TrEMBL record:
Monomer. Gene3D superfamilies: Lipoprotein localisation LolA/LolB/LppX (2.50.20.10). One of its GO terms (cellular component) is periplasmic space. This is Outer-membrane lipoprotein carrier protein. Pfam families: LolA. Keywords: Chaperone, Periplasm, Protein transport, Signal, Transport. GO terms for biological process: lipoprotein localization to outer membrane; lipoprotein transport. The gene is lolA. Residues 1-19 form the signal peptide. CDD domains: LolA.
Amino acid sequence: MKKSFFALSMLVLAPFASAAAIPQLKAFVAESRTLSASFHQTVTAKGKRDEAQGTLEIARPGKFRWNYNKPYDQQIVGDGKKLWIYDRELAQVTTKPLDAALGSSPAALLAGSNAIERDYTLKEAGTQNGLEWLTAAPRKSENTFESIRMGFSGNTLREMELADSFGNVTRIRFDNLKKNPPIAASHFTFTPPKGVDVLSE
C-alpha cells in the first residue's frame, strides 16, 4: 500500500538541549530556509504495517522534493505553484495546484509560510522515549490529518506521527538532518517523462 505524504521536515535549532518542543518548532520555521534528510516511514492501517524509506529536500516557502526509493519508486515535488506526484511503476503523473493540494497540511507547516499558529493549535505533549513532544491540531476540519505529533531531541526533529480520520497512523523518523544546505533550484522542478500518463486535478 502506497502512502504519499507531503510534507516533511526536520530541524537543528538553538543550543539548549532539553528545551520544550514548541519554541524549537517556532525557531525552526523562522530560521530554516532549506533542509535535507533521509527518512524511514511506517504506515499502520487496519492491522497492516507498511514501511518505506527515501530522502527529502525543502526550500521554504513552498518548494520540496520527497523521494521514495524503497520498496517502490515515487517522487513528490512541490515547485511553489504545482504539486507533482510521479509513480514510476504505474508510469503516471498526477498534478494539481499546490495550495489546493496542501491547504494546512504538514507540508504547508514545514515548507510553507511562518503562520504556524494561524493554521494549527499547538500544545506541549511532554517527554516520551527520550524525545520532547508537541501536538499540532489543524484548525480547519477539511485537513487530511486529525492530529500531528512532533518529537525533538537535541534541538532536532527526530520523529513525526500523523493520524487521519480513517484510523491510519503514519510515523516518520528522520536521519542525516542538514539545516540550510545548498540545494540547486532544479531539484524543485519537474518535467513529466515521455510516454507517461499525466492526470490533472
